Structure formats: C-alpha cells, structure tokens
C-alpha cells in the first residue's frame, strides 16, 4: 500500500486524479472513473492504516441514477 501523494506522483498518462477511493482518467473525449484495485489501496499518512474503499455498489448505483437523470 502507498500514500495518496505517492500514488499521484506515479499516475498513468491519461490519469488526471487519484483519490483514496477512485482513479479518474481523461482519454481523448471520454471521462472514466474507476474504483481502486486492492493493490492500489492507500495508507493514511496520519493514522498509518489502510483505507479500504466502502460502499462500491451503492456508489455505482448512484452514478447510474445521476447519468439517467442527466439524459
């Protein structure tokens, strides 16, 4: 596990942001958000504990509902 600062220093080319729960990419004309994989989970620099993303399914359902509303 790594800290958020280290993760952001080693981002992929199209990656524009990394949070403690997601990675955001902007390849071409698209915008992609994905959950972090277990090997990408981050360590809190304050507590020293691993931040395990929660509520993944609920977050996906909320994203889908938001997209349906916008359309």
What's the quick description here?
The chain is α+β, with helices and mostly antiparallel strands and 71 residues long. The chain is built from two helices and five strands, in the order H-E-E-E-E-E-H.
From the structure above, extract its key features:
flat; 2 helices; alpha+beta; 71 residues; two-stranded antiparallel sheet; three-stranded antiparallel beta sheet
Question: What does the secondary structure layout of this molecule look like, with pairings?
Answer:
Layout (H helix, E strand, L loop, with lengths): L3 H6 L5 E4 L3 E4 L6 E4 L6 E2 L6 E2 L4 H15 L1
Antiparallel strand pairs: 1-2, 2-3, 4-5
Describe the structure.
The protein contains 2 helices and 5 strands; from the N terminus they run αβββββα. The chain has a 3-stranded antiparallel sheet with strand order 1-2-3. A two-stranded antiparallel ribbon has the order 4-5. A hairpin with a 6-residue loop joins strand 2 and strand 3. The longest helix has 15 residues. It starts with a helix and ends with a helix. The model has no long low-confidence stretch (mean pLDDT 90).
In total, the number of domains comes to 1
Order of helices and strands: HEEEEEH
Pick out the low-confidence regions: none
Strand elements, count: 5
* Shape by Cα distribution: flat
Estimated share of beta-strand residues? 15-25%
